[in-house]
Design brief:
This protein is mainly α and 119 residues long. The protein has two domains: 1-55, no CATH class; 59-119, no CATH class. The protein has six helices and three strands. A three-stranded antiparallel beta sheet has the order 1-3-2. The chain is elongated, with a radius of gyration of 16 Å.
Length: 119
């Protein structure tokens, strides 16, 4: 199998359309750490496919819309920022959630209904 060293410019080119700069930097560091801990060689095309399928970046309103069944509607109207923080914290019990200034990076997961409630 052929492998290619992935430089920052390559990383940005492969994934730049799907993620913000902050999310790209986080993902790059995350996967570099995994590579250092496991001595794995990384195939850049496989990485791009896996990451694009495993992670999604949401703006706050998108996060609220996609997971609206778990948000207290009154709290959403009264204090949107707090409701979103509560939602991100709740999702963080199920999967990786990384908050940035203007978005949230969420790793795909299957919900375990018992752990969720309306906040």
């Amino acid at each position: 199998m052929l492998y290619q060293r992935v430089e920052t410019e390559d990383w940005n080119r492969y994934l730049g359309r799907q993620f913000s700069r902050e999310a790209l930097d986080f993902l790059k560091d995350h996967y570099e750490d995994l590579g250092e801990k496991s001595d794995l060689e990384w195939d850049p095309i496989a990485i791009a496919i896996a990451i694009a399928g495993d992670w999604r970046e949401y703006k706050a309103k998108e996060l609220a819309s996609n997971f609206s069944m778990y948000i207290n509607k009154k709290k959403m109207r009264d204090n949107f920022a707090e409701a979103i923080d509560d939602l991100a914290q709740m999702l963080g019990k199920q999967t990786y959630v990384v908050g940035f200034d203007n978005s949230f990076l969420v790793k795909n997961f299957i919900m375990k209904k018992k752990l969720f409630g309306v906040f």
